[in-house]
């Protein structure tokens, strides 16, 4: 087929767009933008896809040869995106579902771009020979990424945020920003390389592919990601099983059986060596064999998955909408999760993520994409287009991808790769089942639509990306300028970011509020006068965010904290009442989220309402059935409030839970309980404090009965009660427990007038 020069130029322009996405996206790290490893990659991906889309639309209008071909993969993919579009419209937060945020850069808009990438790539790359250029380009990128990762592991290079070094003690992430993302990226390439290996009989080419596989596997292991490794094992298992079942060569089938047996024995032996130097000196092996169902990490993951199931039950058909998991996470929060990361905006399981986001409809259509891919692979095998090894490699790729996604969440680089592999199968599958169109040169008059389409795509790219990119850069610039000039100067600069009104506005507000909370002054009046405009502005921005998303627990808690700061600084009872009302609203939105009760207690403490402060947290403790740091917070609040009976009961409750869950006596955290001791001394009520501190001594672990901090707390308590003889006894015990405390004890006795 001989294309005209104009047609050929347009086709290659569209192809180059796809190749740029494949090759350059993994390398983009924009240090000038907020979330540099995420925003730069996604904006680049979106802009190139949008511009390429304009070229392709012109081609498709001009010639039927470049229009989408029918196929079950296309129907499944388009159906999934359509279902998620409905989920976005009827979901809990349509705006966020469509645009997402800088931290994730996903949402419906990313799915639409992936669908466009699928359509463009499957239309301009029309046979396996042309598709090899895509795969070779991606393979080249993966080699460079792997080289960078190897240099990172050896300490030669150090990407921002990396702590890897020559000892290999830390996990690497190269230019992807997260070891999970690097492992997932290389996981796809390992199977893609296996597919390419199956498509050649030349020994030196196969040897080259094998060498790249071994090198990238080495870097893959240095990422230390258990989920990806389990996915690799599952994918290889499927590959070998298909080779055993489908290969006509008896020797190859026997080889497959042998590899499975050796692999199974190797895994068994690996777990038998758990704790050995061989395993512990290798981060991935150590992490892989460190599987403890009772560990806090595993238990937390199960609890989060349980929240996802509850969310699905409430919205079973079309779900909550993309990127909205944080809403049911707060609503169905399990207090046993307290002490982990406070906000999970992902289910850390992509299957459950799509179940929550798209309901049963979206979830089934998501799975249908891979079922359709499997059907096309089977059809290609039956037609002798692909060998059993080739089919096994690509099916293993999809299985590995799905299995590793059970444990993590996805990202743009793996979205791109899987989309292109699906586009490849759709393209070659359609070509194998559809009669080729007779070639007709494109009428030059039809090509006049191409400039129009390209101009439209440029305008779309500018409209969709210019302001968000400006906001992403503006947040960094504004935050870096703190300390330069007055607060008024800073707020003036930040106004330029906040007033642009993009999806980045929420994160701009969150950073402003975080700054206000973190930089709150204590007693300095001059500092307070400089700080107060920042606090007032932060309150205003938080209120505007809540007006847009009234039931956003995260923003409600933040606003409650801001009002609490305002009350603490000004003693304005109106601010106190607003803080309490905001926290009460937050409890209505998410009745099981402990941080809300802690905020409520802090406001009550600031207002001097100690009884309500102690009671605020105590109620939520009844929902906890395993050792949890929330108990320490509750004990501290009760002690500060002077409710020592409640504090002692909370210690006993924690002791009972600890014994019930692991059969051991309570092991209170020494440093925390020493802090509790110090804070309890701020209570205006010393009555009952002696019994409380004696109970703290009783329950502190091992050498705790000789704890000088608690003894000094007891001594000070006795002084407040007028029992100087008892105070002297406790002070002397403090010195006996820790002789270095003698100068401090002597000073205490002197000030107390004790001989």
UniProtKB/TrEMBL annotation:
<feature type="transmembrane region" description="Helical">
    <location>
        <begin position="412"/>
        <end position="435"/>
    </location>
</feature>
<feature type="transmembrane region" description="Helical">
    <location>
        <begin position="204"/>
        <end position="223"/>
    </location>
</feature>
<dbReference type="Pfam" id="PF04932">
    <property type="entry name" value="Wzy_C"/>
</dbReference>
<feature type="transmembrane region" description="Helical">
    <location>
        <begin position="385"/>
        <end position="406"/>
    </location>
</feature>
<protein>
    <recommendedName>
        <fullName>O-antigen ligase-related domain-containing protein</fullName>
    </recommendedName>
</protein>
<feature type="transmembrane region" description="Helical">
    <location>
        <begin position="447"/>
        <end position="466"/>
    </location>
</feature>
<keyword id="KW-1133">Transmembrane helix</keyword>
<feature type="transmembrane region" description="Helical">
    <location>
        <begin position="12"/>
        <end position="37"/>
    </location>
</feature>
<feature type="transmembrane region" description="Helical">
    <location>
        <begin position="180"/>
        <end position="197"/>
    </location>
</feature>
<dbReference type="InterPro" id="IPR011990">
    <property type="entry name" value="TPR-like_helical_dom_sf"/>
</dbReference>
<feature type="transmembrane region" description="Helical">
    <location>
        <begin position="254"/>
        <end position="273"/>
    </location>
</feature>
<feature type="domain" description="O-antigen ligase-related">
    <location>
        <begin position="213"/>
        <end position="367"/>
    </location>
</feature>
<dbReference type="InterPro" id="IPR051533">
    <property type="entry name" value="WaaL-like"/>
</dbReference>
<feature type="transmembrane region" description="Helical">
    <location>
        <begin position="133"/>
        <end position="151"/>
    </location>
</feature>
<feature type="transmembrane region" description="Helical">
    <location>
        <begin position="74"/>
        <end position="95"/>
    </location>
</feature>
<dbReference type="GO" id="GO:0016020">
    <property type="term" value="C:membrane"/>
</dbReference>
<feature type="transmembrane region" description="Helical">
    <location>
        <begin position="43"/>
        <end position="62"/>
    </location>
</feature>
<keyword id="KW-0812">Transmembrane</keyword>
<dbReference type="InterPro" id="IPR007016">
    <property type="entry name" value="O-antigen_ligase-rel_domated"/>
</dbReference>
<feature type="transmembrane region" description="Helical">
    <location>
        <begin position="229"/>
        <end position="247"/>
    </location>
</feature>
<feature type="transmembrane region" description="Helical">
    <location>
        <begin position="107"/>
        <end position="126"/>
    </location>
</feature>
<keyword id="KW-0472">Membrane</keyword>
<feature type="transmembrane region" description="Helical">
    <location>
        <begin position="354"/>
        <end position="378"/>
    </location>
</feature>
